[in-house]
Each structure stands twice: as structure tokens, then as C-alpha cells.
Amino acid sequence: MKTILCATDYSKNSEAALKYAHSLSLEIGTTLKVVHVFDYPTLLDNLSLKAEDAFPDIEGDAYKKHHSKLKKFCTRILKADLDDLNIDIEAIENKSVVHGIISSVKEAHVFLLVTGMKGGSALRELLMGNTTRHLIDTSPCPVLAIPEDASYNQIKTIVYATDFEDEDIEAIKKLVKIAKPLNAEIKALHIHTQNEDAFKIKEKGFKKMLEEQVEYNKLSVEVLLSVATFDSLKIYLGDIDADLVAMLERKEKGIKKKWFHRDFVKRMEIYGRVPLLSFNELILEKFNNMYYEQKNI
Known about the structure:
The C terminus is likely disordered. The longest helix has 21 residues. Helix 1 links the parallel strand 1 and strand 2. This protein has two domains: 138 residues, 3-Layer(aba) Sandwich (Rossmann fold), CATH 3.40.50; 140 residues, HUPs (Rossmann fold). 34% of the residues are buried. The chain is an alpha/beta fold and 297 residues long.
């Protein structure tokens, strides 16, 4: 069975992410795994002249403490005993929050990683706001960032921000795997500043690739002509009552692709109304190359 992984730091943001991930897992019919990354203290962290028990089990005690805290957190937020829910929990010791989460993603063969958009916690705990960027850059699966005040509603409409590039096709294929069990509509949206002939040719070619490579009858392509791309996007999301925004993190950034650059995530956080699903172009490219290599063996 497929697995959704939710990483938490116990902040308000991660509370919303947990509720969202749990509801989504129920609707899709997947297992939900909740993880918390911590770094246990060393003997030097608590150095004192006071006599203490020799060779305390720092690692074992830390794991029990964080596992218990994680269980209580999930029980409180989801208002149910974990034994009655299809949820796995894991407290992970790792000095690198990102490495801890990604190792769990790979080990559990996770197909979707859910986090809060922003967050804050004690020293050496999971700082979700600072790690989301790195998770998007390194995660082998899509990363879904949930705003603090977001609540889960049935996902009916997903907007995919496209630049009509070949790489968008692969991202949309993965998006279809999420949308299909939800019976959700996907709107591939492009916001363009000029309606020149070269653009029309590119749009026509992209639509043809979609028809040939993606089988999903609830997929459409829409184009907006505007010089204020982000403002137009916000208006569009409100007009169609979008439940989710998806985008491809591109390896090449330029003036013509400015609304795909790294600042996009920050601007979506400020907007803070719609969950943001990110695909990593380099990761998609890596797995596509592996697929074709295996196919040709």
C-alpha cells in the first residue's frame, strides 16, 4: 500500500499539516506515517560536577521520550487512539533534520511528503520553515506544504503552474496519480505576458504532448494573458476555488521563468491560503533516466 509521510515539529503549522495528511490518506486509501526528527544530547551537553549514574542510556532514553511525545501529539491532534487509526509513528535521531526525513521517505517508499509551510521549535528540533526548501530540493517524492490555517476539504480542483516545457509533462503524470483517486480536476495554467505567434505554437505543441502521453479525462489547459503573474494567479485561484496548487521546481531559472523561481514558495507562504505541491525537476529527471536505462538493458 502507498504511504504518505508527515513530518512534524509540534508547531501550529505542523498541527494543520498532520490533520491534512490524515484526511488525505483516508480519502486516497493510503497508510500515514508521522515522523519527528530529534538530536539526543551528549554527556558534554549536561556536564556538571554533580554525581550521576554511570553511563546513562542517553540514546535509548531520548528515543522513548520523543516517541512518547509524538504519540501524545498525534492522539491530541487527531482526537483518537492511534491503535484505531491506520498510522505509523517514528521518532528519528539524526543531527540533520533533512537527512532524517529523507531517509524515512526512502525506507518507507513514500509517494507524498507533507510538511507545514512554516514553523518553529526548540534548539536542535525540527524547524519546518527552514527545512521545507531543502526537502523540496532533495526529496525523491513530491512535497506538499500546508499553510497554518488550512483545513482539509475534499480536493476537487488542482492548478498546475506550467511553462509549457517538456519537463512539465512528467510532473503532470505524477500529479495524475494523486488526482485520480480523488477524482479531482487538473487545470494546467500558464500565465503569459505577450500573445505572440511563437507562444501559440508552443502552446499547441504542449497540448499535443499532453494528449499523447497523459491519460486523464479531467485534465485541461488554460492560458491567462497578464503582466502581473502572481497577482493574476491569486485571483485565478480564488475564482475557481482551487484546493491545491502544484508547480515544478526548475533547475534553470531566468527572467522569462521568474514565477517559477525560489521566491515563488515564499510568496505562496505569504499568500498562505492554498496548499502548495512541489515537484523537483532534477529528481524527476534522475528517475526517468534510471527507467530508460533499465528498459534498454
